[in-house]
Amino acid sequence: KVIGLGSSTFIALVLLWAGSVNLIYRINPAEVLIEDIKYNNQRALESYRSGNTSLPGGEKEFNREQLNQLERMLDDAMGFIKRRMGVLLVLFSIIGTGLSYFIGARVFASHGIRLMKLPEFSKWRPTEGVVWGLILGGILYFGGLYGRMQVMSTLGLNIGTFFLTVYFISGFSTVSYILHKYKVPVLFRVLLYVLLVVQFYLSVGIGVADVWFDFRKRIKGYGS
């Protein structure tokens, strides 16, 4: 609740600032940010094309195929940020507030100030009703896509991305519990964690499946 309240306050302040800037100076901060990123991307591409910048290590310069691939990657990244700016703001605010709370709980303890500890990560799972948020995001996204309503599809994309992230974390938590429960060697845990990060939707799938199967309850000694 504290993290949720802190994140909501941060988002409200950012929106208030953006609205004030837009009202007073007729400037849209989101558009300024997008244009700034586009400008820097273009400058980077021009630098690579002119041969002023080489690959890391300075071994060789980019060839035409590599330049085209880099341009596509930058365009894809630009599109990702542009369409998901809202949910990125929400996720970064939650992560930032959560880290602040976690660090505060550790630091303040040495000064005699006690904060409630966060729940153990390996036992955390969202409530069953959260899955409806993911379903709503999918309905809005595909409905807007087929109905050619960009605002609706973008809203659905942001909602869907948020809840996909929730279930990614839930899947990660589930796997973490199982690995600790069966005392899997640390090296294998690290490799599996890296796989889950790289294969984002694998962890999402585990998190969604856990809604119905609740894997941790099926393991003897859950909660002990």
List keywords for this structure.
224 residues; mainly alpha; 9 helices; globular
Structure overview:
The chain contains nine helices and no strands. It has 224 residues and is an all-alpha fold. It is globular.
Secondary structure topology:
Layout: H1 2-25, H2 29-49, H3 64-83, H4 85-109, H5 131-146, H6 150-181, H7 186-198, H8 200-213, H9 215-218
Structural class: mainly alpha
Note the beta-strand portion.
Answer: under 5%
By DSSP, the count of extended strands is 0
Number of contiguous helices: 9
Calculate the terminal CA-CA distance, rounded to whole Å.
Answer: 25 Å
- Low-pLDDT stretches are none
Percent helix:
over 70%
Q: N-to-C SSE series?
A: HHHHHHHHH
- Shape call: globular
Outline of this structure?
The protein has 224 residues and is an all-alpha fold. 75% of the residues lie in helices and 0% in strands. The relative contact order is 0.08.
